[in-house]
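Inverse folding, one chain.
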């Protein structure tokens, strides 16, 4: 039990940091700061290549300039994004925010009725999409008089934007500025738009980074569709800590851990049935000596987090007994320095004990009603 005091001290320190406000309150401010401090450091990694903070900062600035000059986007306008997991998704998101507008994420698997509803309900003036989804968007526009004025533009490349200035547009953006109309899945009715501000995203990234103990030397990995919450807050997380984000095309239970090893990811977020599917995968034949160090897996409830830990152990190493043997008495298995794997429940969650269901404490100046 000699390890109890240091653990309690570390937890108290983490909780103290969680109560602090993020030092930068907007996503656009975070990107500008990382581009200034770490211009050549990797920020986004997709299958084909990776991009630095400076490259994404310039690309998003030029696209924001284009949205303002060519598409008539004003602060507060709604701009929808209907794309798969390609780099143009986060680029379009951050560009829309730089223009002072509001992003409307659209599931790229939507069919006509769903797309029509979200575009009408959100009041989107512009839709950013690609060649694959443009025909559906054009059909919806042609069949609905309320959407006749919506502009449909294709997500391009940096080379398409060289004619636009590389200095940020003069738009006032604050923490309380609306960033997203994030639609629910519509399980119990029509999808409903959640109003998410810049403060929401920056605070979420700040809390998760501190709760999981992440820094610039980490590598985050996501496989969920970018139109969902998870890759977006993972982006906010990486903007907070200055670390790269690896974005997979989709989740594959059989290939997930191979991608984790390939990219040497140290942090990933899983939810729903993902832990169960990972748990069912066979152990990796390479054994523990060839596995990378996985520091953090952030799941929803503590029970799911424990299942993820087991799945990671089985899949990556097959057996972590060698790690457990090196743990000090009273220290959780795998938590020793160097090669450790940690799981966390909801960021800042109070540890409710076995069988507990405590969801965690609200953030500073927040209350639960």
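Residues assigned per position:
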């Amino acid at each position: 039990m000699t390890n109890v005091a240091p653990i309690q001290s570390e937890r108290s320190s983490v909780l103290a940091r969680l109560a602090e406000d993020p030092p930068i309150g907007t996503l656009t401010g975070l990107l500008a700061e990382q581009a200034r401090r770490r211009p050549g450091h990797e920020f986004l990694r997709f299958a084909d290549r990776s991009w630095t903070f400076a490259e994404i900062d310039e690309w998003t600035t030029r696209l924001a300039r284009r949205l303002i000059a060519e598409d008539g986007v004003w602060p507060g306008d709604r701009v929808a994004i209907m794309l798969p997991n390609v780099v143009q998704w986060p680029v379009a998101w951050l560009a829309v925010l730089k223009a002072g507008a509001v992003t409307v994420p659209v599931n790229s698997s939507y069919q006509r009725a769903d797309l029509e509803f979200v575009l009408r309900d959100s009041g989107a003036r512009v839709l950013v999409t690609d060649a694959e989804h443009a025909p559906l968007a054009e059909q919806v526009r042609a069949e609905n008089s309320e959407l006749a004025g919506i502009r449909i533009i294709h997500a391009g490349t940096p080379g398409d934007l060289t004619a636009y200035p590389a200095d940020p547009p003069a738009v006032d953006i604050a923490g309380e500025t609306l960033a997203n109309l994030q639609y629910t899945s519509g399980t119990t009715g029509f999808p409903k738009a959640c109003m998410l501000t810049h403060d929401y995203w920056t605070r979420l990234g700040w809390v998760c980074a501190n709760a999981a103990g992440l820094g610039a030397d980490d590598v985050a990995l996501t496989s969920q569709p970018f139109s969902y919450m998870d890759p977006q807050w993972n982006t906010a997380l990486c903007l907070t800590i200055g670390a790269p984000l690896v974005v997979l095309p989709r989740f594959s239970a059989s290939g997930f851990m191979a991608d984790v090893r390939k990219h040497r990811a140290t942090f990933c977020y899983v939810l729903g049935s993902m832990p169960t599917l990972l748990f069912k995968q066979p152990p990796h034949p390479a054994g523990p000596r060839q596995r990378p160090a996985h520091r953090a897996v952030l799941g929803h409830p503590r029970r799911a987090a424990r299942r993820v830990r087991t799945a990671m152990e089985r899949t990556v190493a097959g057996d972590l007994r060698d790690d457990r043997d090196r743990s000090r008495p009273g220290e959780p298995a795998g938590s020793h320095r160097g090669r450790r794997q940690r799981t966390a429940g909801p960021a800042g969650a109070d540890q409710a004990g076995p069988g507990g269901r405590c969801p965690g404490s609200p953030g500073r100046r927040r209350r639960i009603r």
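The longest strand covers residues 178-183. Residues 289-293, 300-360 have pLDDT under 50 and may be disordered.
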